[in-house]
Structure formats: C-alpha cells, structure tokens
Design a protein that fits this description.
Elements (H helix, E strand, L loop, with lengths): L11 E4 L18 H12 L7 E4 L5 H5 L4 H9 L12 H5 L14 H20 L5 E4 L20 H10 L5 E5 L6 H6 L6 E8 L23 E6 L5 H19 L3 E5 L17 H12 L5 E4 L6 H15 L14 H4 L18 H15 L20 H13 L1 H7 L5 E2 L13 H5 L11 E3 L4 H21 L11 H8 L1
Parallel strand pairs: 1-2, 1-3, 3-8, 4-5, 4-7, 5-6, 7-8
Antiparallel strand pairs: 2-10, 9-10
Helix pairs in contact: 1-10, 1-16, 5-6, 8-9, 8-12, 9-10
Bound molecules: zinc ion (ZN).
Amino acid sequence: MATIREHYNKKVCYFYDAAIGESYFGEKHPMKPFRIVMAHNLIMKYGLYKKMKIYRPYRASKEDMFNFHADDYVIFLKNINEGFISNEVKELTTRFSVGTKENDCPVFKGVFDLAQISSGGSLSAAANIVLGNADIAINWSGGLHHAKKAEARGFCYVNDIVLCILELLKFHKRVLYIDIDVHHGDGVEEAFFTTDRVMTVSFHRFGDEFFPGTGGFNDIGAGKGKYYSINVPLKAGLNDDDYEKIFIPVIIKVMEVYDPSVIVLQCGADSLAGDRLGDFNLTLKGHGRCVEFMRRYNIPLILLGGGGYTVKNVSRCWCYETAIALNTEIPDELPPNDFSRYFKPITKLHIKPEKVPNYNTPEYLDQCIEHVYETLRNIQSVPSVQFMDSPPLFMSPESVSRLSSIRTSTPDSVQSLSPNTVQSWSPGSVQSSPNSFQSSVNSNKSSIQADSVLEISSDEEDNTTDTISSDINSIQTTSTDSAIDSTIMTVSENEYYDDYF
Ligand SMILES: [Zn+2]
C-alpha cells in the first residue's frame, strides 16, 4: 500500500529537446510547441537545472509507434513530414483526420519530428523510471492525450502517453494515469478501456459540446476494464479551492483501492485561468497542488505536459511544477530570461484567477465524488498479474544502431547544447529500483542504448540560452521556407510573435 512521505528528496530526471520549438502548426492555430522552449528557459534561469538530471531524449522510431498506432497511419505521418500532401497519400487525409479543413490537425513541416520528440521523451521517462534512475521523470513535450490508434485528434498525432504506459506495463503490475488537462483524456482512456492493468482518472470540463464530448459519469470502462475508467466531468469556472476539494478525496480513494506501482500525471495547462481554449479558473497554485499531492506518495511518478494555449502561462506553470517536483521554492519575481518582454507587464511567476462565475456548486461537486466512490466500490480487490519472462525494453536492435548513428552524425547540435561537458547517461549508474522487478529490469540493462540520452551538465545555463536564441532564428526560417503547400502559412517575424502572446 502506498505511503505518503512529504519531505523525501527524490531523484528527478528531465527530458528536453530544443528542436520541439521548431514545430509550427500555423499562424492562427492555438497549439504552440514553442511554449516548451519558454518553460525550459524559465527552468534554467531559476537555476532548477542544478537539482536534476537533464537529458535530451531518444527520438521514438516508427517501430516504437507501431506498439500502439496502426502501421499505415504512422507511415502516413512520416510521409507528410516535409509539410505537404503528395497525390499518393491525399486520399488518406480524411481517413486519418489530418490536413482536412474540418479538423484541427494540420499538415506542417516536421509533424513527424514533433511526434518523435514527444514520444521519445515519454519513452525515455518510462525507461528511467523502470531502471530506478529517477523517482520523478518529466517530459513537458509529452501528454498528447487525444491521439487515437489511427486518427489524429485535438492537435495530437501520436499518443506518447499510451506508448509510455505500454512500456511501464512490461514491469509494473498496475499503472495509474491521472489527467488534469481541461479536456477529457479520451485517447488514453480508449486505449486501456478494457483492461484493469491501467486505471485512468480524468478531471475535465464536460457539457455544452466542450471538446471532445466524452468523459461523462457513465463512462467507466468495459469488460475486464469495467470500473477502471474514472471520470470527473466538471463545469466552467472551476477555481483552486473547488479543484482541491474534488481532486484530493477522489485520488485518496483511487490510491487506496487501486494501489498502483507507478503513476503518470498529465499536467495539461489549459485548465489554468485565462486559457485561450479552456474555461476553468485555476491558478498555478491550484494546478500545482495536484503535482504536489502526487509527489507525496512514495511511488515513481512521470509528469507530462499536454494542452495549454496561453503560452506565457503554460511556461510559468510547467516551470513551477518542475520546482514542485524538486521540492524547491522559487521566487514569485520572474528572473531575467530570454522572453522577459513577453511576460510584461506582469513580471511575476504566479497568476491571478479571473472574475468569472463558477458553475460548480458544492452539491454538484459532492455528486461527482459520490459517483466516483460508487464506481470504485465495484472493485473488490486490486487485480493480480502473473508475470512471465520480462519483455525487452522499447528499443529494437534497429533503433539501437540508428541511435548510434544519430549521435555521431549530429556533433553540431550536441556541441551547441552542451559544449565540452556532454555526458552519456549510463544504465551502469543505476543504484536501486523503485519497484519489485529489479532483477528482471537488470537482466534487460544491456538492451538499453544509454547513448540515446545526453546529459546537460549543471553549468550549462548560458549555453542553453544560446541554443534557444538560435532556435528562434531557425523557427522563423522554417516557417517561411515551408510554404510548399497552401495549407502551410508563411509568416513574418512580427506576426509570429504577435500570434504567440
Ligand atoms: Zn486540453
């Protein structure tokens, strides 16, 4: 049974690839992957890098994606990576919901690269948790919870969370997935809807045709997975106090009943006040309280990103939650950073709630809690799992050889990220495993290609700044040069920035 240890210092691994900032969905599109670059910059400027291991993650291969996604869908995504739809694949756009006028998942240059970075980060997080290299692993580029097996949805193309959980399931009996994005975590729920090995718990806005429209009280799983999908459908205007009132009792009961051995927390930041798409009213403190609460359990934890469309607040939030993972207090005054002018006139880390009505009455919140308790009452005892010989970790022999070539073929990017001090992460550094499958994990050590993860040393702050500056230039170039197809917008520098803030 899980125990709570409040002041326990944890090993934190953080995964970041600056190339995520080069992904550009289009001028009017609310999804801005550059928010991850801004969050990383704040994290560095607050000095949080001194307290954790920072790695550039492995990039997921299409074979890794095949573990969940349909082969033809993944190959289609790879084929449109240059940012245009050739005649050969044109008829597939409707089938896969990519690049059509009706949906929100455009074709853009680097769409597959984005999926590789996002998924590679979450797979690397899983591998480091399994190896005992981390108590908490963070990938803010991940959390793309809407992607389906053969369909892009809600700005998500490849579901890094499902891939991550599938990896964890090789070594963990029960995985708990918690989703605090303002939208229902439908893609993850659907993937594990019929199994009791994963419990999904989603707190989200529901009703009034709010996207994606699923996640009501009666959405509880099916077959063997019946009662293992938990949904908390909420109304507009939810504030910090009410979020805490519902999150904590629900999670305490879930932990008591399900007793997971690892937790994946999707920290979508579109549940914050003032989000461009969401209509909850949380501050960083209310959102971060969920991270803080989960951290207190003595159970390995993976933190992922997700939605979040008011870019400066997303970066504030994920920086703050990195500090929470590290059990570190950071000042409210933002440090000088590469994006200082975009935070003005507010130079503080924390945000204020908006003056909007909260439609979640105390009676309604009680009703939500009672629904969850009622569902959980159907679970008699924690499910048992028989383990056969442990399966290999995620990297195939092909991936391993490819990774070796990547590392030697990209000396420039490695050099710019961390000159002189790039170190390889080594499984030999594993001290202990947080789970009971240490022996089986160790037997697989040799199958992990440690060179796939590059460590940034703790004195790299200024160099990373340089990297980010050069990334901005490359983004502008990329955006301008990618006008291969009419679906790709060209933007000037000013439009680019105006669009962001
Ligand atoms: Zn969302």
